[in-house]
Write a structure and sequence with these properties.
Chains A, B: Belongs to the aspartokinase family. Chains A, B: Keywords: Amino-acid biosynthesis, ATP-binding, Diaminopimelate biosynthesis, Kinase, Lysine biosynthesis, Nucleotide-binding, Transferase. 2 copies of one chain form a homodimer. Chain A is an alpha/beta fold and 425 residues long. Chain A has 13 helices and 20 strands. The longest helix of chain A is centred in the N-terminal third of the chain and has 25 residues. At the A-B interface, helix 1, helix 2, helix 3 and strand 3 of A face helix 1, helix 2, helix 3 and strand 3 of B.
Chain lengths: 425, 425
Amino acid sequence: MGIVVQKYGGSSVADAESIKRVARRIVETKKAGNQVVVVVSAMGDTTDELIDLANEVSPLPAARELDMLLTAGERISMAVLAMAINDLGHEARSFTGSQAGVITDAEHGRAKIIDVTPGRIEAALADGAIAIVAGFQGVSQTTKDITTLGRGGSDTTAVALAVALRADVCEIYSDVDGIFSADPRIEPRARKVDRISYEETLEMAAQGAKILHLRCVEYARRYDMPIHVRSSFSEKEGTWVVKAEDVTKDGTMEAAIITGVAHDRSQAKITVVGVPDKPGEAAAIFRAVADAAINIDMIVQNVSAAATSLTDVSFTLPRGEGQTAMSALDKLKATVGYESLQYDDSVGKVSIVGAGMSSSPGISARFFEALSDAGVNIEMISTSEIRVSVVVAESQVEDAVRAAHAAFDLGSDEVEAVVYGGTGR
Amino acid sequence: MGIVVQKYGGSSVADAESIKRVARRIVETKKAGNQVVVVVSAMGDTTDELIDLANEVSPLPAARELDMLLTAGERISMAVLAMAINDLGHEARSFTGSQAGVITDAEHGRAKIIDVTPGRIEAALADGAIAIVAGFQGVSQTTKDITTLGRGGSDTTAVALAVALRADVCEIYSDVDGIFSADPRIEPRARKVDRISYEETLEMAAQGAKILHLRCVEYARRYDMPIHVRSSFSEKEGTWVVKAEDVTKDGTMEAAIITGVAHDRSQAKITVVGVPDKPGEAAAIFRAVADAAINIDMIVQNVSAAATSLTDVSFTLPRGEGQTAMSALDKLKATVGYESLQYDDSVGKVSIVGAGMSSSPGISARFFEALSDAGVNIEMISTSEIRVSVVVAESQVEDAVRAAHAAFDLGSDEVEAVVYGGTGR
C-alpha cells in the first residue's frame, strides 16, 4: 500500500459543492488502496478577504500577526474538507502545519521549511484515517510562532510532506490538465506534455509558465519526488515531473529537443544610458539595485562606443519593483555619472525550454529566425544549458510564442479545450 | 504594576471600526501602568457563518473538525486586534488557546479546562507586550487536538487566565453597563448593581439573567478572582462580582436584602398526571428523563388525593429538550401507569436573588403578596438560601418582574438608557 500526497488549490475548494467533489475524489484514491494525505489551500478568495480586513485596521500589518490571520484560511478549508470526507463514511483528520510537523525558520510571510516531522500524520495513516493538512503554513523552530511560506507555499508543503512520508507521488491538482507546450490561450494547438524533467520545469516556471512554483519543483528535484500535475475536474492523466533520465522511459528514444514555450508579461526593462566604461561602474549600479532588494533577471551591457567610452546597461526586473529600482538608481547619478535612465514596462519575455537543446546545435538560430520571419524584434537575449530567452515588445509576445511553437513542431493536431490558469499559493 | 485581564465579546469586535475602538481602550489600560492580557471572541457573526458552512457539507459535522473550524473565528479576531494595537505603536502578540497554555479534556464542543500554563503569556508581558488570547478554545491534554469550551467559553478562558496569571481583576466587556436589578427592557427603573457576590451572580445567571455565564462565575468564585462586568462603549464603572464579605466593603453597612430580579422565558413545563402514589414511581420518571440527558430544573409533586392514591408530578426543563423528554416519558406509560402527559411551553420563571434573604424572614411572603396584588398566578415555587423562584404564565412574566422590583424597592430614580443584552460565547 503506497502513500499518495494530493494538493488541492483554492479554486478546487472554492465552495461547499467543490469541497464535496474533492472529498469524493480523495475517497476514491483511498478506496483504490492508497494511504492518502491531502494538502489544501484556503477556499477561493479567503486569503484576499483576510488581507483586506488586515488593511482596514493597519496600513502595514505586523508580519507575525498577518501570518496568524492568514493561516485561519487553511484552517477553515481543511476542517470543512475533513467533515465532507467523514460524511462519506471515511475517517479524516485535519492538521495545521504546526501539528503536521512543518518546521520553518522565523521569516514571517516567506518562511523556509527547515524540517518536517510528520509523526501525527503517520499515526493518522496507521489508524486508517485520511490526513488533511493545511498548506502554506508552519511553525518557527526558534520562536514557536506560526509562519506562512509565501507564494507557492501549499505546493511546497505537499512536496515536503511527500518527501518526509516517503510517498510514491505528490499529486498537484488545479483547474488545468497539466503542463502545456505553450499557453493554450495564445497557441490553441498547444499540447499537454506527458513527462518533463525537474530542470525543464524549473526553467518553464522561472520563465513565466504559471503551472508550478519554482520552490516546490526545486524541493522535488532535490529529493527526487515525482510530481503529477493534473486537473481536479477530470480523471485524465496530467503531466509527470520526474528526473531527467525518467522522462524518456515510456518508449520515446530521446528527449524532445524543445519541450515547451514559456512567456512572461510581468517584467519591465530599465536602461542606464551613458555609463562610463571603466571597472566598477556596472558593479555600483547592480549593488544599488541589490541593496534595494530588487530581483533582476536578464542583464545586457552594450559594447561601448569607442569615441565616447560610454556604454548602456539594460536589465529586466519585476514590474512591481520598477519604481523602487528607479529611485535607487537616481541616487547614484552623481557618483556613477551616467547620462539618463529609461524605464520600459511594455516588454515581455519568451523562452524555449528543452533538455535536448544541449546536444542539438543550431537551436538558438532556428528560434531567432522564426521570430524574424514573424516580424518580431529581439531586444535582449539570455541562455542557459536548456533554455533560450528573448525580451520583445509586449505587443509581440503572442506572435513570438506562436512562431516558436510552430518552428519546433510542438503542436498537437487536436486543439485542447482547457483554460491555462495559474496556481494560487 | 498589576495584571489586568480583559475579555471582549463578539459584538465589541464586530468590524474593523469596533476593533480599532477596542484597541484604543486596551492601550489606555496599558498606559495607565498595567500589564494587559486580552481575551477575545470571534468577530460578530463569524461563528454562526462557520457553522452554516459546516452544515453545507455535513448534516452532523465531526466534533473534532467542528472545533478546528470554529477556532478559526478567534484566530481572525485576535490577529486583527493585535495588528490594530501594533498600529497604535504598542507591541501586541496574539496567542491561540493552545499557545496560551489552556489545557482541556478531550470533550469536543464542551471541553473543560484542566490546567492553564501561560508561560508564553508571561514572557510576552515580561517583554512589555500586550498579550491577545483566543477565547473559547484550548488543546486536549491527551489527544493534543484543538478543543472548544462551549457556551460561556470565552468568559471562562478570561477568568482562568486571570487566575493562572494572578491578575488583579478580570474585566468582562459587553455592550451592557453591568449587572442590573432587573432587565431594563421590562423595568425601566432597573438599577445597575455596584457590587454583587459570586453566589448571587450564580443564582442570577442560573435563573436567566444573561450577563455572565455560570461556568465563569463558578471558576471565579473557586479562586476568588474579582470580575468587573462593564461596557466597552463607556468609561463608567460597571458591576464588581466579588466574594460575599467584600460586597459591603464600600460604606454600606449591610448587604441589600434583595439584589435583583431575574427572569427566564426559555423553559417549558411537563406534568405527569395521575401517577400511582407509591415508592419508586417518581424515581422511574426522573430516571427516564435523566437517561435522555435532559436537564430538569424545578420539580413539584402534588399531595395525592386520598380517594385515588394518584398524584401529579410537574417539572420544568429547557424548551429545546421538551420533545425528547415527552418521548422518553411516553415509553414509560405502560410500566409506570400514569394517566396522561401535559406539555406547556407558555411558562416563564421569575426569581428574586439576594444574600440578605437568609437573615430576613418574610421575604417569600412579601414576594408572593406582590405577585398576587399584580394579579399574577403562581404555578410552581422553588427556593434556595439566597433565592426564591416562581413559575408563572409567560404572559405574566413582565408584570411579575415589575411587581417584585417595586416590592423590594430596587429601582433607581433615573431610568437607565441601556440595552440589556446577552453575552455570546
